[in-house]
Design a protein that fits this description.
alpha/beta; Rossmann fold; globular; helicase; helicase activity; RE_endonuc_C; DEAD/DEAH box helicase family protein
Length: 916
């Protein structure tokens, strides 16, 4: 299987946010060696105009969904070699599963193409992420070669014998060095900090770390929240970055955040799977509930004090965490619960706690819970969800492999004489197979369905690890195998479908076809819930490597050992801001929406479906260059070009202030700045603005390909007062002009676009679009209670809805469904169209809301498609959203099997029939 990569608008937006920061601010040195790019020998000669960067930062953050910022936040740090460093840091937040690694590799290639940057260090903190980055390079090789045919690039992994020399040698190729931060942060023992035995022409006897620092690379930091300790900050500074670009879904130190794709937004756009949670709550075993999380000691004035962190039941019905010393009485701490009578802490060591009644607990142990019964329930429900998902996939005729993942905390639970999980899984699989109604003689051997990946020694002895640096060698063998086998696991011919892996496997690995995750462990870190969600968020792929964008399939089920409310509240705490977290749904609160078969087989539905089921492609017959040039020349977006001025020198003035030792202590805040002489560009080659504009058009959120004569005609018509800016700041000028062209062209397309239905064999199939049943884990609207803003509402039994429930995404949609039900005399049938039904447009695919059969004057049937919004004015909507509706109007205007009436409306405006 080969993964297929497409240009995704959300990735393009993240890429452009970074690339646009450097327009006019990346001052490239002259060519050093004939035939080589300016950055071939590194970026030491490059200058970043921080004033221009700050201005670009304000422009980018103003247009992006982040806080507007106009001041650079620098990392100022003394490195491991006692050298002071300062450099800009820009952050990009992208939810796990949305192609973060792809985005930063593509960003680097765009920076190379646009500004001549050539040296990039990708900094990671685990071997899992390192292996994932290398895998992405391998998978995207052909894609990027085709996308950037004139841009050669190579990657190396720090630790390979030739990695640093190859990276440091002058080369016009773009060079990537993938480095684990633990390979850089040990000056005393790391050979990078030692002088080479033999100098060559390029390194002059410099140490490996000095060679890297001399190059001033662009540092791409993957998961920077794990690199915020003082030592790791110094390590980053030791690389002497030209700039650091930070990518994560869970930033802690944002610096300058220039782009955000939050978890909630990613889910709304259908870029990741929806998430459902099934909680298995521990039952009592005759003992009071007790979990010993940690024992720690504190020494003060020669006295050692022991403290134990315990989780106990509380009198209010919840559980709470308490930190107690010897002598503490758990009955008092719990609020007087009788089951804790006699549980007074007698003593504790680093690993064990004892009570007066003789009960002992080791760190990590839990009492009052039958852990094996919890595991059985978790495994049972994971298998059950797996078999149901596979049945759903087969029913839809999709060539899609379903995978489930189990995280175990101890290798001994799966491998060894005392291992319980393999036999437990095999027995439960047989039970669930029979329960699902499948033929017993068709059941595979459960042992052939299991595969495990655990850290191991070179001799094959499996190890428990916790992600520490000294365990990287053990973990690398597990990570390399599971990542290298990613495509193999997705092959339907491979029976392995249930993956058992170690709990330390967090960031850095995922598989798109993981639909169920069972967490067979009890510990909770500050980010564990986010991490377990992240292992299965990515959209699945079929046997041809294509993404499957089917909302009915794309749902991740987590089977956890806590209640839904505990999981939800813990997840909210991990995400922080309420607006950024995903909507996690309770698997136990599901509603199954069913087709009403009598309505599906009715003449009304047959006539409606015959009219709307066609697919069509669009083409642009003619773009009026003259009109287009006039439109762009007068476009309001060009007003931003007024801000471009000739670049001037900056004159700084300040008084020198000394301390008692004669050291200058004048601060930057006291320095005054003014403009000096304008920079004269005599002898400098004029920029190729046509090429710059073409590049901007092709790499934007909605790529656009125009002929060069058309671009030239448009640029020639731009008023002279705007043209001068192309000399002063060509990159910024090209971006503004390209944006105006893109808007003008797409708006003209609405008038000139022609939709042509494709061959009927490729039209939509009702069995694919309208499923017999579909389970939604959304809140149910209950009369008399507050209405959820999005959810499921029961349809009247005698109503005209094609389904027995309405799945609504807004209160506008819910109200419109009620309006349709109240017009039973004229509305003969209606349905909320599933998102599987889509119309192609130049600004992305569009899924309309409603399809309706309407009877007028008691005899004539009208066939309607309606989009519901909270406004009738399309200009009040997002530009691309409004344009999709306008293009859809043209699509439905060419319905080949009878007229289809399409428009947008509101609940107040009603159905909005044409001609009354």
């Amino acid at each position: 299987m080969k993964f297929r990569f497409d240009d995704q608008p959300h990735q393009a937006q993240a890429i452009e946010a970074i690339v646009d920061l450097f327009e006019g601010g990346a001052l490239v040195p002259p060519q050093g060696v004939t035939g080589q790019a300016s950055g071939a020998a590194g970026h030491a000669g490059f200058q970043l105009d921080r004033e221009v960067l700050a201005r670009n930062l304000l422009a980018v953050t103003t247009r992006e969904a982040v806080e507007a910022q106009g001041t650079l936040v620098l990392m100022e740090e003394t490195d491991l070699l006692e050298q002071p460093r300062d450099f800009p840091n820009f952050s990009v937040e992208m939810e796990t599963g949305t192609g973060k690694t792809y985005a930063y590799i593509a960003t680097a290639l765009r920076l190379a193409e646009t500004y001549g940057l050539r040296k990039f260090v990708i900094l990671v903190h685990t071997v899992a992420i390192r292996a994932g980055v290398v895998k992405t390079f391998e998978q995207t090789r052909e894609h990027f070669r085709a996308k950037y045919p004139h841009l050669d690039y190579q990657w190396r992994v720090l630790g390979d014998s030739q990695a640093v020399p190859d990276f440091a040698d002058p080369s016009s190729s773009v060079q990537f060095l993938v480095a684990g931060i633990s390979s850089l942060d040990k000056p005393a023992s790391n050979t990078l900090y030692a002088s080479p035995e033999q100098a060559n022409l390029w390194n002059g006897g410099a140490t490996g770390i000095a060679q890297l620092a001399r190059l001033r690379p662009v540092v791409l930091i993957d998961e920077p929240q794990n690199m915020g300790t003082p030592k790791r900050r110094k390590t980053i500074a030791t690389l002497n970055p030209l700039v650091a670009l930070r990518y994560s879904a869970t930033h802690r130190d944002l610096y300058n955040l220039v782009h955000r794709l939050s978890a909630k937004r990613a889910a709304e756009l259908g870029l990741v799977k929806r998430v459902s949670v099934k909680g298995v709550v521990a039952g009592a075993s005759g003992q009071p509930y007790l979990q010993l999380k940690e024992i720690r000691s504190r020494t003060q004035r020669g006295t050692t004090r022991w403290l134990a962190e315990l989780v106990v039941d509380a009198s209010d019905g919840d559980r709470k965490t308490v930190v107690l010393a010897p002598g503490a009485d758990l009955q008092e701490e719990s609020g007087g619960l009788a089951q804790y009578h006699g549980y007074v802490i007698e003593s504790m060591t680093r690993s064990e706690l004892r009570f007066d009644n003789g009960v002992a607990l080791t760190v990590g142990q839990t009492l009052g819970v039958d852990s094996l019964s919890i595991w059985r329930d978790q495994i049972r429900h994971t298998i059950r969800a797996h078999l149901q998902k596979q049945a759903d996939v087969e029913q839809r005729g999709q060539s899609l492999k379903v995978l489930s993942l189990f995280f175990v905390e101890r290798v001994a639970d799966y491998i060894g004489d005392a291992a319980t999980l393999p036999a437990m899984f095999d027995a439960l699989f047989r039970e669930e197979w029979a329960r699902s109604g499948r033929p017993v003689d068709a059941m595979p051997d459960p042992a052939t369905l299991r595969v495990h990946y655990f850290p191991s020694t070179k001799t094959g002895i499996y190890k428990d690890t916790s992600g520490k640096a000294n365990e990287e060698g053990f973990e690398a063998r597990a990570y390399d195998e599971i990542i290298a086998n990613k495509e193999k696991l997705l092959d339907l011919a491979n029976p392995r479908a249930f993956i058992f892996s170690h709990s330390a496997l967090r960031e850095g690995w995922d598989n798109p076809n993981v639909f169920q995750i069972g967490f067979l462990r009890h510990t909770r870190s500050d980010t564990e819930r986010r991490q377990q969600i992240g292992r299965g968020l990515r959209l699945p792929v079929d046997q041809d490597g294509n993404r499957v964008q089917d909302e009915a399939i794309n749902r991740l089920t987590l089977v956890v050992d806590e209640s839904f409310s505990e999981f939800r509240d813990g997840l909210n705490a991990e995400y922080g801001g309420a607006g950024d977290r995903p909507d996690v749904e309770n698997e136990d609160h599901s509603v199954t929406i069913r087709l009403r078969s009598e309505k599906l087989q009715s003449p009304e539905f047959a006539a409606l479906w015959r009219r709307i089921r066609y697919r069509a492609v669009y083409r642009i017959e003619h773009l009026d260059e003259i009109t287009l040039a006039v439109t762009v020349a007068g476009h309001e977006h060009l007003d931003e070009l007024r801000n471009i001025q000739r670049r001037a020198n900056v004159v700084q003035s300040a008084d020198l202030v000394y301390d008692d030792c004669g050291k200058v202590v004048t601060t930057d805040e006291t320095v005054a700045e003014s403009s000096g002489e304008y920079v004269v560009l005599a002898g400098q080659r004029l920029p190729n603005v046509v090429q710059l504009v073409e590049d901007q058009l092709q790499h934007g959120k909605f790529p656009l390909q125009l002929t060069r004569p058309t671009v030239v005609a448009i640029l020639s018509a731009i008023p002279p007062q705007y043209q001068a800016g192309a000399i002063h700041d060509p990159g910024y000028w090209a971006r503004i002009v390209a944006h105006a062209i893109r808007v003008a062209v797409i708006e003209q397309m609405v008038q000139n676009i022609e939709y042509v239905p494709v061959d009927e064999a490729h039209w939509w199939d009702a069995n694919v679009v309208f499923l017999d049943s579909e389970t939604k884990n959304k809140p149910l609207a209950v009369p008399g209670q507050p209405t959820p803003p999005s959810g499921v509402a029961e349809a009247p039994i005698d109503g005209t809805n094609l389904y027995d429930y309405v799945d609504y995404d807004s209160l506008v949609e819910k109200s419109f469904a009620e309006l349709l039900e109240n017009h039973r005399g004229t509305v003969k049938l209606f349905t909320k169209l599933p998102r599987r039904f889509r119309v192609k447009t130049p600004v992305g695919e569009y899924s309309p809301d409603w399809a309706i059969v309407y009877e007028r004057d008691g005899k004539e049937h009208l066939y309607l498609v309606r989009e519901t919004k909270d406004t009738l004015n399309l200009d009040d909507l997002e530009w691309d959203e409004a344009m999709r509706i306008r293009f859809a109007t043209q699509h439905f205007a060419v319905a080949p099997c009878g007229t289809v009436d399409f428009t947008h409306t509101t609940t107040d405006a009603g159905i909005r029939l044409a001609n009354g």
